[in-house]
């Protein structure tokens, strides 16, 4: 799924709270707010201000901290405006001033003239940079939407996949009933953050956390089970593929082979779970979640079991006859 | 693979009832059926998925089907759009 255009106005319009807040406001160059941010990165334009424009990363958001502003004021006081003029000759997405610093009027005039938006934030440069980079990398993260259900079971994000009508939603409902949480039903939007973490969430906040159960229709999970039963987003840590029981297919009986599924280039452990009447899939998923947590703590049930079997075979005890001579056991 | 582009002709757009109608129709076929809106693709057999698209009046969608009965599937779903989901 390709990213739609992301303009400076979209950045200002993001609904970010508390530790995510960018505290941005536009101080001039409003007509440039439609400019697009194309690269999830920023640049400190110190070198450019001093007149060195080789490899100038003009496509990035330009960040002016205390140092840049002090230098700016100095060159403006000395009447050397040509570097600033050259800076604005590039199609900059926007200039951002941290620490609530006010740019000089000459700078504002030039920004207004070229239509480059100038924003201001009350945050410190380092804090602002890390927040902006985090937010931009989330926005520019590759995304895909997958047909399935994402639930959190014992703290682990399980993505339930399977054909229509195999019982994904019913399985999720039973898990919710057992105290686990629903993240998204039917359409799960997955984004790849930092290149190795898959974050799943519902496609739409307004109609999120509803489920369609055959025979019941559409139900509202938040209202039925309370806010404790839902989550907004969760990392996808296991994929559970439900499929109709196929007598000819060989299913994993030991749990030693580790299947994976690739989503956006990230490999996620995958379980193939055959469904047939009498098999309690929710309990299987609960167990899978706990087993996966054990694995991440270093205990691999199936392998450990096999090692114990091997050890036992090798010991003398195994070679000795089972029954004692005196029949007392 | 059969694809067909359709426009939503009923005023209310795809709300719950038309979505249910599409999903019910899609479920009659064995083919995999997807509906595309711009860059989002959703499974036509899921009601919540179809509603999530928030497709309003005059939105252009593409129906894609892949399987043994793909032609019939696309035809049946297209007919729903043409009939304005028995609305208006």
Largest sheet of chain B: 4 strands, antiparallel
Number of domains of chain B: 1
Q: How do the SSEs of chain B run, as a string of H and E?
A: EHEEHEH
Secondary-structure-derived class of chain A: alpha/beta
CATH superfamily caption of the largest domain in chain A: P-loop containing nucleotide triphosphate hydrolases
Largest sheet of chain A: 6 strands, mixed
Look up the CATH topology of chain B: Histidine-containing Protein, Chain: A
- CATH fold name of the largest domain in chain A: Rossmann fold
Q: Could you name the ranges of chain B where pLDDT drops below 50 across 5 or more consecutive residues?
A: none
Instruction: Count all strands of chain B and give the number.
Output: 4
Distance between the termini of chain B: 32 Å
- The multimeric state of the shown protein is heterodimer
Average of the residue pLDDT scores of chain B:
88
* Tally of helical runs of chain A: 11
Mean pLDDT of chain A comes to 88
CATH 2nd-level architecture of chain B: 2-Layer Sandwich
Give a written overview of the molecule:
The complex is a heterodimer of chains A (329) and B (88). In chain A, strand 7 and strand 8 (156-161) form a beta hairpin. Chain A contains eleven helices and 17 strands. Helix content of chain A is 32%, strand content 26%. In chain A, helix 4 (82-89) packs parallel to helix 5 and helix 7 (168-177) crosses helix 9. Chain A has helices at residues 8-13, 46-49, 66-77, 82-89, 105-114, 125-139, 168-177, 221-225, 281-296, 301-314, 316-319; strands spanning 24-28, 42-43, 61-64, 95-97, 118-121, 143-147, 149-153, 156-161, 181-184, 187-193, 197-202, 210-213, 217-220, 233-235, 238-244, 259-263, 266-275. Chain A folds into two domains: 8-139, HprK N-terminal domain-like (Udp-n-acetylmuramoylalanyl-d-glutamate--2,6- Diaminopimelate Ligase, Chain: A, domain 1, 3-Layer(aba) Sandwich), CATH 3.40.1390.20; 143-299, P-loop containing nucleotide triphosphate hydrolases (Rossmann fold, 3-Layer(aba) Sandwich), CATH 3.40.50. Chain A is α/β, with parallel strands linked by helices and 329 residues long. The termini of chain A are far apart. The model of chain A has no long low-confidence stretch (mean pLDDT 88). Chain B has one domain (2-86): HPr-like (Histidine-containing Protein, Chain: A, 2-Layer Sandwich), CATH 3.30.1340. Chain B has helices spanning 16-27, 47-52, 70-82; strands at 2-7, 32-37, 40-43, 60-66. Chain B has a four-stranded antiparallel β-sheet with strand order 1-4-2-3, covered by helices on one side. In chain B, helix 1 (16-27) runs antiparallel to helix 3. The model of chain B has no long low-confidence stretch (mean pLDDT 88). Chain A binds chain B through residues 1-2, 4, 145, 147, 164-165, 185-187, 202-204, 207, 210-212, 218, and chain B through 16, 27, 39-43, 45-49, 51-52, 54.
């Amino acid at each position: 799924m390709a990213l739609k255009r992301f303009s400076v106005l979209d950045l200002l319009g993001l609904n970010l709270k508390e530790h995510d807040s960018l505290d941005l406001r536009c101080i001039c160059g409003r007509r440039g707010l439609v400019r697009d941010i194309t690269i999830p990165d920023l640049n400190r334009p110190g070198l450019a201000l001093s007149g060195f424009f080789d490899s100038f990363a003009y496509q990035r958001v330009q960040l002016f901290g205390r140092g840049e502003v002090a230098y700016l004021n100095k060159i403006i006081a000395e009447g050397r405006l040509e570097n600033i003029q050259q800076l604005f000759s590039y199609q900059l997405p926007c200039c951002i001033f941290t620490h609530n610093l006010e740019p000089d009027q000459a700078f504002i005039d030039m920004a207004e003239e070229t239509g480059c938006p100038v924003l201001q934030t009350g945050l410190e440069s380092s804090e602002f940079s890390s927040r902006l980079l985090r937010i931009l990398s989330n926005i520019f993260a590759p995304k895909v939407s997958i047909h399935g259900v994402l639930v959190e079971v014992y703290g682990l994000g399980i993505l339930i996949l399977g054909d229509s009508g195999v019982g994904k939603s019913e399985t999720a409902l039973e898990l919710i009933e057992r105290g686990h949480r629903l993240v998204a039903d039917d359409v799960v939007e997955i984004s790849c953050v930092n290149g190795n973490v898959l974050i799943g969430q519902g496609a739409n906040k307004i109609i999120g956390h509803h489920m369609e159960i055959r025979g019941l229709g559409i139900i509202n999970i938040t209202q039925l089970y309370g806010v404790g039963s839902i989550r907004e987003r969760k990392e996808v840590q296991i994929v559970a593929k439900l499929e109709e029981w196929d007598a000819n297919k060989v299913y994993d009986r030991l749990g030693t082979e580790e299947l994976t599924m690739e989503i956006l280039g990230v490999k996620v452990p995958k379980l193939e779970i055959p469904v047939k009447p009498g098999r309690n899939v929710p309990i299987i998923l609960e167990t899978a979640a706990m087993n996966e947590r054990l694995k991440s703590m270093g205990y691999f049930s199936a392998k450990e079991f096999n090692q114990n079997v091997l050890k036992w075979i090798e010991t003398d005890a195994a070679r000795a006859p089972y029954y004692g001579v005196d029949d007392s056991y | 693979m059969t694809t067909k582009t359709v426009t939503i002709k009923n005023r209310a757009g795809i709300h719950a009832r038309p979505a249910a109608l599409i999903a019910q129709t899609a479920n009659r076929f064995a083919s995999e059926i997807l509906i595309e809106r711009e860059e989002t693709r959703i499974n036509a057999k899921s009601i919540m998925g179809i509603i999530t698209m928030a497709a309003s009046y005059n939105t252009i969608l593409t129906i894609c089907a892949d399987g043994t009965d793909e032609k019939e599937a696309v035809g049946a779903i297209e007919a729903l759009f043409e009939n304005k989901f028995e609305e208006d």
